[in-house]
Fold this protein.
Amino acid sequence: MYKYSQESVGSKLVIGKVVEAICSNVDGSICGVKLEDGTTIDADALVVACGPWSDAARKWFGPEVGAKIPRMSGVKVMEKVALIFIVSRL
C-alpha cells in the first residue's frame, strides 16, 4: 500500500516523534506538526490514530486547545505504538 501511495501521489514516510501541532494564526486550523528533532511538516489535516495513547496528543495543542479535546483512554497491552497520518496537498 505504501509503495502504491508513494508512486501514485509521491507520499513520503517520515519517522519521528510529534511534539507540537502547528496551528494557523488566522483561524486556528492545523497547518502542520513539529517533530522532536525540530523538523516541521506542513499539513492540511492531522489524524491522530494512536489507540489508547491518543490522549497523549492533547499536549501537542497547548493547554487552551488541549483542554477542549475529549479525553481518550483504553487498555494498553503492548509496547507503545503510534501512527500519525499527516495529510498534505501536493
Q: What stands out?
A: Helices lie at 2-9, 62-66.
